[in-house]
Specification:
heterodimer, A: 292 residues, mainly alpha, MetI-like fold, 74% helix, B: mainly alpha
Chain lengths: 292, 299
């Protein structure tokens, strides 16, 4: 009986609406939303494989391509520093993510589980740190990066990205750690486990979904980062994809739209593919951080 | 040694050390340093001296800085209102009983995943003055005679950048609000319907009040990130045409990094802080959880 009630409940009151009405109130607006949200991606793909004659012509149907070509992608991969940018982006994103995850796990465990004196205030401070936008930090950070001799190095990015990754990851992991029962930890303590053993053998295996959420989120945030990479890097061989595409492919008056779009497409694919494998984790990370 | 490690205060601080060091060195210190730089006349490659409110006085009388303040507010208000309205609508639509619900939710979030600088390039091409696909379609439909200069005309450029920002922001708001909607029990709607509430009344008196706390948090974040936006503007217009789309963040980059006037740029960035604080406090106190939403009674 209870189960039956639950299944009826999830259907809501949709059955009260007739089909034509639902078509207008739900499906029509939803398809407009989907069209607008996805059109730029379609446009990226179609432009990346369009030959120049078709790109720069007002005749014919711009929504379709007649003679698809891989010339733009070939030019991008072999005549520009794009592969290097891609490699830099991967290197910086992975390193910054791992570094932030390690720091965040320790910090979140410390704040949520060790409950030392003043841990609540540290938790609040971490949340406030998340609200500090990079746009007001990049100038002082640029002077620091310069003084430390880190200007134009990947290390500058690896060390500064955690400033927005750690607050987010810590906040998210605190929520996950909170949901793990205290009794497990107490049992282990009685059995003589140290705090370190508890963290690595009990808490972490139970918090794997949280770790994946935080990791995926941190990775996409680093991949997305723009202002630090634009400010701290000047040589082409250490640039990241977003900065490289914007600053190096857009030079002069003649824009190579095909290569630009191919660059945008190839730069978006890795995060999109990764995201598609971990959608659930990503969404729970996104909403978990907001709900707290 | 061993006993010391069992002490939770000692161990707590020890565990907190790596994160704390990184954040103090690269977040707290630069925050203070940035404020200090705003009060000096430091330039790239030259140490500065304390000049008091000189930078702020200069910026207050600077027409471009005034314009960027106006642009920032215009951009934030118009984009946030649209993101909220469309995001809430999309969330309600996705909360319906639909086939492929998980798949729909996954592809809706795509604009938010892809780097803004890269999707901005797609918009740049869509907004092209000569080959814009929007202009092409409108012309074929007979609605316009000449192609629209999306990024060349000041007001068109403002609305075009806002549209691109809304495009990227709507999925984030929709997915967060959807998570909130899913926690509302359908029986509340049934009870309201039995009491004779119309669809709009159910939305207004059941959905909105129960969603208010999560709306507050989501919109705080949204306003915060819109107000300090840099990436989209830099990729699409670099502040042009004739500074019409310069936000405070892009102008401070231009003055500090491209122009070398670090002190002036830092002052502009610091000038954003009070507005951010106001936005946070407003949404915190204006929309925070009310006691009755958790079963208590409002005073």
């Amino acid at each position: 009986m209870a189960i039956k009630e639950a299944t009826v409940d999830t259907a809501g009151m949709g059955y009260l609406e007739s089909l034509p009405r639902r078509l207008v109130t739900v499906w029509l607006p939803l398809s407009v939303f989907l069209f607008v949200l996805l059109f730029p991606f379609y446009w990226m793909v179609i432009t990346a494989i369009k030959p120049n004659e078709e790109l720069l012509s007002r005749e014919g149907n711009p929504f379709w391509v007649i003679n698809p070509t891989l010339a733009h992608i070939r030019k991008l991969l072999f005549d520009t520093a794009y592969p290097e940018w891609l490699w830099n982006t991967i290197l910086v994103s992975v390193t910054a993510t791992v570094l932030s995850l390690v720091c965040s796990v320790l910090a979140a465990y410390s704040i949520e589980r060790l409950r030392f004196r003043g841990s609540r205030y540290v938790g609040m401070a971490i949340f406030l740190a998340y609200l500090v936008p990079p746009s007001i930090l990049f100038i002082p950070l640029a002077t620091m990066v310069f003084q430390f001799g880190l200007f134009d190095t990947r290390l500058a990015l690896i060390l500064t990205y955690p400033t927005f990754l750690i607050p987010f990851c810590t906040w998210l992991l605190m929520g996950y750690f909170k949901s793990i029962p205290y009794e497990l930890e107490e049992c282990a303590l009685i059995d003589g486990a140290t705090r370190w053993q508890i963290l690595t053998r009990i808490i972490l295996p139970l918090a794997v979904p949280g770790l994946i959420s935080a990791g995926i989120f941190a990775f996409t945030l680093s991949w997305n980062e723009f202002i630090y990479a634009l400010t701290f890097i000047s040589s082409s061989e250490v640039k990241t994809v977003p900065v490289g595409v914007i600053t190096e492919l857009v030079e002069g008056d003649v824009y190579h739209w095909g290569s630009l779009m191919a660059g945008a497409l190839l730069g978006s694919l890795p995060v999109a593919v990764l995201y598609s494998f971990f959608v659930e984790y990503y969404v729970s990370g996104l909403t978990g951080a907001v709900k707290e | 040694m061993h006993r010391l490690l069992d002490n939770r205060n000692v161990l707590g601080v020890l565990f907190l050390l790596p994160a704390g060091l990184l954040l103090v060195l690269f977040l707290t210190y630069p925050l203070g340093l940035g404020t200090w730089l705003g009060f000096t006349d430091v330039k790239i490659g030259r140490a500065g001296e304390f000049v008091g409110f000189e930078n702020f006085r200069y910026l207050a009388g600077d027409a471009v800085a005034q314009l960027s303040l106006f642009n920032t507010f215009f951009y934030t208000v118009v984009a946030s209102v649209h993101k909220f309205a469309l995001g809430l609508w999309l969330a309600v639509l996705l909360n319906e009983h639909l086939p492929f619900k998980a798949f729909l939710r996954a592809i809706v979030l795509l604009p938010f995943i892809v780097p803004t600088a890269l999707s901005a390039i797609a918009f740049w091409w869509i907004y092209d003055a000569q080959f814009s696909v929007i202009s092409w379609t409108l012309q074929r439909m007979g609605l316009i005679d000449t192609y629209i200069d999306f990024l060349g005309d000041p007001w068109m450029a403002r609305f075009s950048t806002i549209a691109a920002n809304v495009w990227r922001g709507v999925p984030f708001i929709a997915i967060c609000l959807l998570a909130g909607l899913q926690t509302i029990s359908p029986s509340l709607y049934e009870a309201a319907a039995l009491d004779g509430a119309s669809g709009w009344q159910r939305f207004r008196h059941v959905t909105l009040p129960l969603l208010t706390p999560i709306i507050a948090v989501v919109m705080t974040f949204s306003v915060l990130f819109t107000f300090t936006d840099f990436q989209l503007i830099w990729a699409l217009t670099r502040g042009g045409p004739v500074n019409a789309t310069h936000l405070m963040a892009t102008l401070s980059f231009q003055r500090a990094i491209s122009g070398g006037a670090l002190g002036e740029g830092a002052a502009l960035a610091t000038a954003m802080v009070p507005f951010l604080m106001a936005a946070i406090l407003f949404s915190y106190f204006g929309l925070q959880r009310r006691a009755w939403q958790q079963g208590g009674s409002d005073r």
